[in-house]
Amino acid sequence: MNSYRSLEAIQSDLSAEIIDMPSLVNHYLQRIEETVDLNIFLEVFKSEILDKAAAVQSKIKAGNAGKLAGMVIAIKDNICYKDHKISASSKILKDFESLYSATAINRLLAEDALIIGRVNCDEFAMGGSNENSAYGPVKNPVNKDYVPGGSSGGSAAAVAADCCLVALGSDTGGSIRQPASFCGVVGIKPTYGRISRHGLIAFASSFDQIGPLSQSVSDAALVLEIMAGKDSMDTTSSSQKVDAYSDFSENPKPLKIGFIQECLDSKSLDPEVKESQLKLIEQLRAEGHTVDPVRLEELDYLVPTYYVLTTAEASSNLSRYDGIHYGYRSSAATDIESTYLKSRTEGFGKEVKRRIMLGSFVLSAGYYDAYYGKAQKVRRLIKEKTESLFEDYDLLLSPTTPATAFKFGANMDDPIKMYLEDIFTVHANLVGTPAISLPLFKHSKSGLPFGAQFMSAAFNEKLLLDFSHNLMNIVALKA
Amino acid sequence: MEVDDKLIDKLASLSKLEFKADEKEAIKKDMARMLSFFEQLTEINTDGLEPLIHINPETNVYRADKITEELSQAQALKNGPNHDSFYFKVPKVVENKD
């Protein structure tokens, strides 16, 4: 079977009876087997997915199948699926089984999507290379010597390796967009509150969002549209109306796009990534868009602000892992204090412990105002500044990442170097706006893919996706 | 900001984590680097700005105060590392006085 790049193509072949659901699922199961050395899947739901595929096939025949009939999805190992295991790629949640499904999952299942398995990620979604998983790193399908990015590294690799059509990831500081860029797929982080976080294992609750990774913008738009919307189980989910993202406008109008000058001047920027941005700017101008430089003088402060706030939220969120209510308990525990201490010390990996310690520091008496309180004020400053940019511009453009994927171990001894990988992506999480990474480029030396990132104002996914869909179509026509 | 053993011990105690001697040296070094990285933020003037706490602008999200049974007792206990039919089991917490 050919690999499919959009649900539209699959549904057209299903209705023409060129393929059926069991053969489609078997294709993905075979791809998972062929790519087992990439360590993408922590578990494949093999026995049940074939039964479910047959059920969807009957619905297609009866003419009452849901909008996502034919879509096979992999889920990041931090999104709950009832009666299935979930571990956040951590030893501390080994053998944990979800008691309920995430709202996002329920909405996809209601439209007849099939979930093929759960995929590897950095432990508790903390990392940018997938090297922090308790179950070993994922390898980049484009070149196995390189990381797939993180933390949704398994999700990006699963889509790039054709093990599923769409994967769900979560994005706290770039964890969907950076691996999407490194693996050459589409990845979008929606507006904060656009998708319910109910059933997403919490890392930093004022930053986390679920989002799709896919081959096509149209699939990302459709999945987003179905997952989005108010949920009584998450009070931070927005009650704003969900637009029909997948109903792309035929005649997109010229937009005003600002490219962030500081991103292009960033010292960590690969020269070829810069060159490609400049060419993209010219191309967008040639297509009739207005593209101007805009200033974000605070760029260098984004990553420190992000890490103060997210480590604080993580240290609080991860206090629930106590060795008592669920998950791992150390066999060395002899009393209540050692139950906490030993279970957490043996259950969490190095990076998670580092972030819990930092979070405890910035929240502790005597340091709270100087670190945590200060970062919250800087967050407001950045949010107000960004909102003022969106008064004049429809979209903001930057590279998704300063460079392409790096080799395993390259950033492991220097946490700050690893954290600076997020320099262009944390912006959208700090201010809550949506941002998409589009797989537009390939590095001439390594052949590795890299993306361009577009950001819109909050709850303006419609405009962002319309534009992205159109841009990818133009690129495909030229290729 | 100096990161010494005393600070690491205090944070480890707050975090309910333990560090062996060699791990302690590594985390001390990492923390010192990270905290000086954080200290860049003092360069930004934030006078007159309120801390940003809630990202979603909606306030006062109400719902009816209705009792629903989301999880049964058996389900709630299911993932506990040690439990019987009614309780999570833990090592002895309260000591006899005599």
TrEMBL record, chain A:
Reaction catalyzed: L-glutamyl-tRNA(Gln) + L-glutamine + ATP + H2O = L-glutaminyl-tRNA(Gln) + L-glutamate + ADP + phosphate + H(+)
Domain of life of the source: Bacteria
Quaternary structure note: Heterotrimer of A, B and C subunits.
InterPro entries registered for this protein in UniProt: Amidase, Amidase_CS, Amidase_dom, AS_sf, GatA
Keywords, alphabetical: ATP-binding, Ligase, Nucleotide-binding, Protein biosynthesis, Transferase
Amidase domain segment(s): 24-465
GO process terms (BP): translation
Function recorded in the entry: Allows the formation of correctly charged Gln-tRNA(Gln) through the transamidation of misacylated Glu-tRNA(Gln) in organisms which lack glutaminyl-tRNA synthetase. The reaction takes place in the presence of glutamine and ATP through an activated gamma-phospho-Glu-tRNA(Gln).
Listed PROSITE patterns: AMIDASES (PS00571)
GO CC annotations, alphabetized: glutamyl-tRNA(Gln) amidotransferase complex
Gene3D superfamilies attached to this UniProt entry: Amidase signature (AS) domain (3.90.1300.10)
GO MF assignments: ATP binding; glutaminyl-tRNA synthase (glutamine-hydrolyzing) activity; transferase activity
Active site feature: 76 (charge relay system), 151 (charge relay system), 175 (acyl-ester intermediate)
Pfam families xref list: Amidase
Similarity comment: family membership: Belongs to the amidase family. GatA subfamily.
EC number(s) per entry: 6.3.5.7
Protein name (record): Glutamyl-tRNA(Gln) amidotransferase subunit A
TrEMBL record, chain B:
Catalytic activity: L-aspartyl-tRNA(Asn) + L-glutamine + ATP + H2O = L-asparaginyl-tRNA(Asn) + L-glutamate + ADP + phosphate + 2 H(+); L-glutamyl-tRNA(Gln) + L-glutamine + ATP + H2O = L-glutaminyl-tRNA(Gln) + L-glutamate + ADP + phosphate + H(+)
Entry-linked SUPFAM superfamilies: Glu-tRNAGln amidotransferase C subunit (SSF141000)
One example of a Gene Ontology biological process annotation: translation
Family: Belongs to the GatC family.
Domain of life of the source: Bacteria
Function: Allows the formation of correctly charged Asn-tRNA(Asn) or Gln-tRNA(Gln) through the transamidation of misacylated Asp-tRNA(Asn) or Glu-tRNA(Gln) in organisms which lack either or both of asparaginyl-tRNA or glutaminyl-tRNA synthetases. The reaction takes place in the presence of glutamine and ATP through an activated phospho-Asp-tRNA(Asn) or phospho-Glu-tRNA(Gln).
Principal EC category: ligase
Keywords in alphabetical order: ATP-binding, Ligase, Nucleotide-binding, Protein biosynthesis, Transferase
EC number: 6.3.5.-
Subunit structure, as described in the record: Heterotrimer of A, B and C subunits.
Family annotation (InterPro entries): Asp/Glu-ADT_sf_sub_c, GatC
Name this protein carries in UniProt: Aspartyl/glutamyl-tRNA(Asn/Gln) amidotransferase subunit C
One MF annotation (Gene Ontology) recorded for this entry: glutaminyl-tRNA synthase (glutamine-hydrolyzing) activity
Any Pfam family matching the protein: GatC
